Amino acid sequence: MKNISKLLACFFVLGIVGNSCSDLEDINDNPRDITQEQLEVDFQQVGSKYKPIFESIYQYTPAWSYQLQQNLNADVYSGYMTNPRPFVAGANNTTYNLVSGWNDFIWSVPYNNVMNNVKTISDLTENDFPTLYATALILKVEAMHRVSDVFGPIIYTSFGDLENVGEYDSQQEAYDAFFTDLDIAVENLMADIDSERFTAFDLSYGGNYRQWVKAANSLRLRLAIRISKVDPVKAKLEGEKALAQPLGLMVTNDDSFFVNSSLSHPLATIDNSWGDIRMNASMESILTGYNDARISSYFDESIDYAGEHKGIRNGLPLLPGYEDELAQKADYIGFSTLNESVKTPSVQLMTAAEVYFLKAEAALRGWTGAGDAQSNYEQGIITSFDQRGASGAATYIADNTSTPADYVDPVTPSNNIAALSNVTVAWNAGDTNEVKLEKIITQKWIAMFPEGQEAWSEFRRTGYPRIFPVVSNQSAGAIDTDIQIRRIPFVDSELSTNATGVANAVSLLGGPDNGGTRVWWDTGGPNF
Q: What are the phi and psi torsion angles at 280 (to 5°)?
């Protein structure tokens, strides 16, 4: 009634006051609201969508979301970290008693915060602002290859297609689409390489499109290496395309792909405030065995065992003699915490060191443009040492005697285990390609820390490094203790809302929907 009265009043005085009621449609508008026209002046209608994408490749906040999205699965399965507390009385993801409610975050965060926002950006920019579209595609591939590497088939090419809602791609189809999206992105960026349109929204490279092309090329090489066993022809084609692109790959640590947020790193909360994550026994074995100077930039010495870096075996149940999980946590919480340098707001997604190790493997596989395997391997180590501010890289590279160390649990001696590998650091041209690959992947694993998702994927693809198996396997036979977990089952939210799509996805998977079934690129066969 109030607005109708105002409208009548305006009609009554129309001849006297002229245009005083020309903005009737704004009567109920909040003067504090930003109009669409105002948003479009500085591209905020597009730019505002990037921040949640950057901060949800893995989610910054709340910290427990990242804990469920990655920390209590990939960060642990990779051999990087372990929880000192046996959650759910020891029956949890780390003991292969997979908690579906936890795992839903691996799926929901990237779909809600990445795919939805990329779809909006794409609709607004694909035709008129191709470079903005390009960066969204690169972020999309970076986020969603991780999701596919966890589950296998994913919803990708049909996302946002109302006629094919919920339709899964096989992992092979998804990877083909990743490569296509990278093609479009690089082409668009190269056509307007000096544009500064993205500067205000870029949390990685400050709007430098040349750096984005290097990131796209490096990501392409990562994905090409990932499929090198299952589809060597396609892998070689895509890998050589990355190696030949004129702007090249990541070369220095300044090229590395980080997300620079104003938010705190979630590991700071999980490690410091909650005491829910500590060094993994596999990290202790390999880093201390190699006398690796990077260890002090990754982990602090144990407060309970002075002068030592102490890790915890993965997959601890609620051990005999403990009345509850908090009592057991109290005996392990004094093991090595994460170093503060790991917990900066700059979240690492891909480093120049990783790229040198990718090139080293590409050289082993005979890909044109990869260079020399030994030179790339050694430069990867040097670049990683530089990134971490560690000294002694030359001595480390020449070490042909040190090997991973046996693990000793000072709290529970039954968890003691002998080292699983005897490879040294020094390159030996006379070694088989298999031994050379073990060295490459082991050093890449060290250099990629703390990015557990990529480390877990490479462990599954190659079997390296040799990670200690879980102490307690509560999968009821679905997961082999020695082979270790291969994937995460499809989540309850999909099962309840997209049962037909999931059923088709399982048929594409080629095995039961459990943690023991391998994804497409995880062949289980020889590396060469």
A: -85, 145
Strands 81-82 and 278-279: antiparallel
pLDDT tens for residues 478-517? 999 999 999 999 999 999 999 999 999 999 999 999 999 9
- CA–CA distances in Å: residue 344 to residues 252, 276, 300: 20, 18, 15
Contacts of 162 (CB under 8 A, 6+ apart): none
- How many other CB atoms are found less than 10 A from the CB of residue 476? 9
Question: Where would I find the H helices in 70-205?
Answer: 74-77, 100-109, 116-125, 130-151, 171-191
Query: What whole-number distance in Å separates Cα of residue 424 and Cα of residue 179?
Result: 35
How far apart are the C-alpha atoms of 139 and 120, rounded to whole Å?
14
Task: Give the Å distances, CA to CA, from 173 to 67, 144, 177.
Answer: 29, 13, 6
At residue 37, the 3 state secondary structure works out as helix
Query: Taking Cα atoms as reference points, which of 280, 417, 263, 415 lies closest to residue 343?
Result: 263
> Pairing state of beta strands 346-350 and 278-279?
unpaired
Length of the chain: 528
Burial, 300: exposed, middle or buried (Cβ in 10 Å; 0-12, 13-18, 19+)?
middle
Enumerate the β-bridge partners of residue 257: 350
Q: What is the pLDDT of residues 454-485, one digit of tens each?
A: 999 999 999 999 999 999 999 999 999 999 99
Reported CATH class of domain 45-509: mainly alpha
Residue pair 79/468 in contact by the 8 Å Cβ criterion: yes
Residue 451's Cβ-side half-sphere holds a number of Cα atoms within 13 Å equal to 24
304: helix, coil or strand? coil
> What is the spatial distance between Cα 270 and Cα 279, in angstroms, rounded to a whole number?
13
Grouping H, G, I as helix, E, B as strand and the rest as coil, residue 12 is: helix
Distance CA 203, CA 138 (A): 13
Stated as kind and residue range, the H or E segment containing 82 is: strand 81-82
pLDDT band at 20 (very low <50, low <70, confident <90, very high): very low
Q: Considering the entire predicted model, what is its pTM?
A: 0.91
Q: CA 21 to CA 521: how far, in whole Å?
A: 66
